[in-house]
Amino acid sequence: MSWDRTLLALFVAAAMFLRWYATVGLAALAPAGLCGLAAMAIHLTQRRRYGQQSRGVARERVEADVFSVLWMVVLVVALAVLGVLAIWVI
Question: What is the model's pTM?
Answer without folding.
Answer: 0.74
